[in-house]
Specification:
Blueprint (H helix, E strand, L loop, with lengths): L1 H10 L6 E3 L7 E3 L5 E3 L4 E8 L6 E8 L6 E4 L1 E2 L4 E6 L8 E10 L2 E6 L6 E6 L3 H11 L5 E11 L2 E4 L2 E2 L6 E12 L4 E13 L3 E3 L5 E3 L13 E14 L2 E12 L2 E13 L5 E9 L3 E10 L7 E8 L9 E13 L2 E12 L2 E3 L1 E11 L1
Parallel strand pairs: 3-11
Antiparallel strand pairs: 1-10, 2-4, 4-8, 5-6, 5-9, 7-8, 9-10, 9-11, 12-15, 12-28, 13-14, 13-27, 15-16, 16-19, 17-18, 19-20, 20-21, 21-22, 22-23, 23-24, 24-25, 25-26, 26-28
Amino acid sequence: MKWFLLATAALLFVAPTVVFGEDSPSVTVYHLPSMDLRGGEDAHIYATVFDDWTTDAAYLAYRAIGAGEFQEVQFKRASAADFVAIVPAHAVQPPGIEYYVGSRNDGAQRLHYASPDAPHTVVVLGETTETREALRLARHNGMRSTFELSGEYANYGRRAVDSFETESNTDWMWASTLQYRYRLLRTLYEIAFGVGVIRGHQDTYLDADGARTTADPVTDLGDGREPGMNYGWGQVTWEAHRNFSTDLRLLLGASATGFAAGLGGTLRIGRIAGTNLELGGEAFQDIGSLAFMRFSWDTLPRLPMALSYELTTRPNPAAPPANRLIYELGFDITPAMRVTGRAGYTLRSAAVQSGALGALQLAYSF
């Protein structure tokens, strides 16, 4: 009675046999279908194969739901009665896979469970490396590479020097950069390389004798040379969690006084390509340091925005630090192209008059 009930239950899961070719194999396959699988792990799908020596192969054909061609794996003996077909982990991805079971012998085929036109669907549960990468890629509209070209001009206004005041429009800088990003979208999220140019002016004042004097002269600069740097950098970005990531930058350059090196880093809370808060800074020989806090948000479609505060001595490391408050507005012309404008307010320590800055950036992704 027990064996009769087991055989009857098994037959409920056996699809009607469909035969292709004149000579069909005599093998019989009983299969209890899988209902769900764990994503990113090998899927072991079992069947009972009777008279397996009468056929060349019993197989399982699988694919992602509704996508691509079916791939085959053969059933191998797992025990005296059971056979197993193993679907590799890289193919076991959410939302699921679909499969059918068949056998072949001398060119003839028999379908034992489901079929290519009506495969059995299995839900795949959980998050995998591949699904996380797909989600990250979607943040960037499916594009892994980006070129960014930017330019900036800043005027720091006037400030007090002892009992004097610096002259108007003598404390300024401009900068231009070109950067390339490539997104690996794993824990090592992104790598970037870039080149840049910074040029500035040492502000001056009229002393008691009416002579024009440099307020905070840069060491070793003379003969009319101005502070500045031609430089390049490399950067890596790690995403430890979807809402926590870090950047690390190495900067190398040449100024009017010689070779220079620097380091920079960023701590980011929130999604990389979304709403986030960044805290970071850079220290660079010969042109000074930079510390910043930046809040970005993307609540309006195609109009990303940001507000940032910076404290910097650039381009003159001998000058007192300057405060910079910057508002940023971008516009996605297309999914691949973005233009971003920045406008800001600048103010050095002991300032008697504030200044302003403006910047423009063009980004193209592919």
